[in-house]
Amino acid sequence: MPVLVSNLQEKIQLSEEIAATVEKVVLAVLERELIDPGAEISVVFVDNDYIRQLNREYRGIDSPTDVLSFALEEGEPMPDSGEERILGDVVLSLERAEEQSREYGHGFMREVAYLTAHGALHLLGYDHGTEDQRNIMRQKEEAALAALDLGR
User: Fold this and answer.
1) In what order do the strands lie in the sheet with 67-71?
2) Within the chain, how many helices (H) and strands (E) appear?
3) What is the pTM of this model?
4) Which residue ranges form the domains of the chain, and what is each CATH number?
5) Do residues 50 and 8 touch, judged by C-beta distance below 8 A?
């Protein structure tokens, strides 16, 4: 299965609907980017404490964030990687997604879907360091979500 979903948090119940939506979003992003749908992405749900630790360790920022991506295709190719293409891990704070859904005035599922698309696009090399990059990434996020009727 190309989308592996893991739950490392206990504050928000992980429903089958959330897991299914995340899988659909990842597949929509891969399809729109013409990536083999057999490529593997792992989505890991955590809480704010867990993602804060990762954010501090990997980015030097001592605060929780909503989503972090850990791409496996950066740098040199891994030896003996075979035919299987593993793109990396998306780590998403469900706690932060719930907070942001209230802040932004839209549904929790929409926020989880958006963060999933955002994280998946990071695994594919997209970034938002400049305004142009941010605009391109936002268009790609919204296009993937609109294809699933999760647009704004």
Assistant:
1) 3-7, 40-46, 86-93, 67-71
2) 5, 4
3) 0.91
4) 3-146 (3.40.390.30)
5) yes
**Residue listed under structure tokens 């809480």:** 47
Where b means 16+ CB within 10 Å and e means fewer, 29-62 reads bbeeeebeeebbbbbbbbbbebbbebbeeeeeee
Phi, psi dihedral angles at 58 (to 5 degrees)? -100, -25
Question: Cα–Cα distance between 92 and 67 in angstroms, integer?
Answer: 4
Q: Which amino acid would we find at residue 101?
A: S
Both structure tokens of 37: 């749908």
Is 106 annotated in some ligand binding site?
Answer: no
Bridge partners (DSSP) listed for residue 92 = 45, 67
128 is in an annotated binding site: yes
Q: How far is CA 59 from the centre of its chain?
A: 17
Within 10 angstroms of residue 80's Cβ, the number of other Cβ atoms is 5
Strands 86-93, 3-7: pairing kind: unpaired
pLDDT tens by residue, 28-54: 999 999 998 789 999 999 999 999 999
Task: Find, among 66, 39, 35, the residue nearest to 50 by Cα.
Answer: 66
**Which parts of the chain have pLDDT scores under 50?**
75
